[in-house]
C-alpha cells in the first residue's frame, strides 16, 4: 500500500471526484478526514449530500466516511465551507483530534455555478466562486502546513482544471480561480519544498461524476469528440494520480500541474469557446 500509516484530509468528498479520491486513499492505507459543505442524515434508504440536485441521476447509497470504514480504515467527516476560514480552522482541528494529524491535504472542493457572459456577471458571484475555488485552497493549506513542517513530511494536492490554461466560454470566474490555484501551487512549493513538503496540481478532464452525467446530451457529445481517448474519465482514474502524488514515490515531483484528461489538452477547443451556445 502506498499510504500506510498516513492521514489525509479531502475536501468536497461527499461525491464525485472528491469521494473517489477519499476512497482510493483509504484503499492505499490512509485514514481519511472527509469534508464537505453539508452532510445529510440517513433517510431510511440512502444517504444524500446536501444540497442534492434533482438532476443527479445516481447519488451514492453509502456516505463516504462509512465506505472508508468498510475498507478497514478510520474516517472522520466534518461539515466545512472551505471559503470560511473559521469553519476550516474548526474542521481541521476536529480531524486532527480524531485522527491524530494531517499528512496529506487534497484541495478538491470547488463550484461551477457562475455561467454567464463577463459583462453580465455579478460581482458577488465572481467573489463567491473565487472564495471557494481559490481562497478555499489557501484556507485549508494555511491550517495544515505548520503540522507538516513540524513532522518534516507533507503532501498538498490541488485540483485545478484545463480551464486554467485555455479559459472557458462564459465562465471567467471559474477559469480565473483555477488558474490562481496553479500559481498558488507553485508558491507553496517554493516556500516549503526544503521542509519535506510537496505541492502539486492535478488537472482533470471530463469525468463521469454526477455533475457531468447531468449535462445535456449535446454538450457531453461535443466534449467527447474533443478527447483523443474517446471517453470520459472514471473518477477513480483521477484519484489514482492523487494517490501517487501523495506517496513517497512522488517525493521529487513538486510544483507541477499534471493533466489527467485522456489527451484532451492536445485538442484545441476543449472546455474553451462555444460561440453562440
Structure report:
By secondary structure, this protein is an alpha/beta fold. It has one domain (7-266): 3-Layer(aba) Sandwich (Rossmann fold), CATH 3.40.50. It has nine helices and seven strands, in the order E-H-E-H-E-H-E-H-E-H-H-E-H-H-H-E. It has helices spanning 16-27, 64-70, 85-99, 123-151, 163-166, 172-192, 210-213, 217-225, 235-245, and strands at 7-11, 31-36, 75-79, 104-107, 154-159, 197-204, 257-260. Strands 3-2-1-4-5-6-7 form a seven-stranded parallel beta sheet, sandwiched between helices. Helix 4 (123-151) links the parallel strand 4 and strand 5. The model is unreliable at 40-59 (pLDDT under 50).
Which word captures the global form? globular
Strand order across the biggest sheet? 3-2-1-4-5-6-7
Strand content: 5-15%
- The CA-CA distance between the termini, in Å, is 46 Å
Tally of extended strands?
7
Task: Give the H and E element order.
Answer: EHEHEHEHEHHEHHHE
- Helix share bin: 40-55%
CATH T-level topology: Rossmann fold
Name of the CATH superfamily: NAD(P)-binding Rossmann-like Domain
The total number of structural domains is: 1
Low-confidence stretches: 40-59
- Assigned CATH architecture: 3-Layer(aba) Sandwich
Secondary structure tally, helices:
9
Provide a compact summary of the structure.
The chain is an alpha/beta fold and 277 residues long. The chain has helices at 16-27, 64-70, 85-99, 123-151, 163-166, 172-192, 210-213, 217-225, 235-245, and strands spanning 7-11, 31-36, 75-79, 104-107, 154-159, 197-204, 257-260.
